[in-house]
Amino acid sequence: CRKLYQQEGKQKMSHELSLKDLCSLPFMDQLIEAGITSFKIEGRMKRPEYVGTVTTAYRKAIDLVLAGKFSPKAIEEELSMVKSVFNRDLTKGYYFGKGEEMFQKETPLNQGRYIGKAGKKEGKYTVLVLQDPLVNGDGIKIVPPKGEAYGTNVSGVLSENGKIKLPEAIPFGSKIYKTYDKRLMDEAVRTIKEPEKGRKAFIEGFFRARVGEKPKLTLKHPMGITVTAVSDVLAEQPIQKKMDIEKMKFQLSKLGNTPYAMKSLKMDINEEVMIPFSALNQLRRDAVEQLAERIKSRKRISPLASESHFPAVCSQSSKEEREQQIGLYLEAGIKQDKETNPSFYIFEMGTGENEKKDLQEKIMGAVRSNIPYYLAFPPITHDQELDFLESITKIGLKAAKGIVVHSLGQAERVRSYTKGNAVSLIASERMNIVNSFGTKLLEENGFTGFIPSLELTLEQIKDLKKKIKLDCFLWAFGALPAMITEQKLKNDLIDDRKMTIRIKNTAEGRTVLYYPQKLSLLSHLQELRGIENLLIRQAFLEEGAEIKKILQAYEKGNKECSLTENEKMTTGHYFSKVE
To answer: What is the 3 state secondary structure string of 148-170?
Structure first.
């Protein structure tokens, strides 16, 4: 996505798919108020200093929200840190709609943080009018009024009479961006080499003591885990001096090197009692040990493992080797050719009225031709789109063999309006099934088939099939989607290898980008034996004649079938590496 592309019909190449960096710092309060409890910070291929700096900034913003002190002004320094450490321009993403431009098409490199402009020259120096200081070792980008931007490392900087000077001839009015902040990086390195003590979880405590009873200490963790420890010693009536409750509270709150800190401790003592400090210390230790053990042993139970949540459906297929089926996957809006006769169809649904009408015609055509069919959800479906698809799905499922879904959420939605009736669910490659753990989860949740991840080799797929009951559907030919974006692109793209990346705009307003080479396994028909279902995909209307020829070739085992002239094909990852 960081490469250069040329739009068809245009001369200039640009970074058409290079996204700006998502930054939610300015509206962290709104995200937390919306109920979000976990935030992911992307740090692939970034230096430790980047990860440390960005994490620190977000930690500060979250703490401010929780303390009720968050404001745009309060996180100005943190936002400055994020811009300084690395940014490709910042975007709010889709959090507030699609109105914002999310692509940085000029360059995928660090944009830096704007700090001022170049002023007049004084001898060999250029005076800089800056809102932030510069130090030797900083990196800056200079954007002159005319010509290309360029970068330089700061050295020989002078600060005289409030003026900052550089011993360079910089065009007057040039914008200055700081691309490397030495002080910030030095501080990041220091914190990495000399880490502070780990953060502690703030727990709440409740202590109860009555004369003649064993005292109890209850601890509550913010994750919702609560434990209660009971002392081995009875609380007694004091003989001489009564105990100081504040000292008792202090003793019970001493959590030392544990991963906890006492946020609050309520003391329920309705009369004077006497408890040895040694007993209080032991009670505290017992409670902390219980809490640590509960956290360590807690199990994350997925609701998807519940039989009542997702009624299991027995596979309709026998695992004995049977005749290979050749299926034709028609994307939404692609008309059905009456002269093609696949073993089965997969009809992708769309959320436009035209797509709805087209789907009904395709279903009727399949029924008339006595050809089985499956339905398929679009890869991305928002709630309002699912509502639209519900009526279509209910009609289509009456005669369908099943439905292809791209997520467990889509599968659950199907279950919700089929009222628990047995429906064959096929998991698409977008569910990224790569091992038997994934297929087991599918089996437990009523799936009868799956399309393996495109990252697997054919050998890995066959090995996986030996361990499962699910039917396997394998992509064998066609233009496969590489990316789907909410951003609307108008023209096909040409990459630096002069290969064309075709695009298609959907009824939902999204853009689908296809791999530049079509997948074809025609030269490997022998190796495909044992795979129950081979899938051929038609993505574009003009592919009709080619698809008809390909279907016949797969059905007859004709690996010598001549394909579209001068069109190079790929076998994907099926044979270890992409061609």
So the answer is: CCEEEECCCCEEECCEEEECCCC
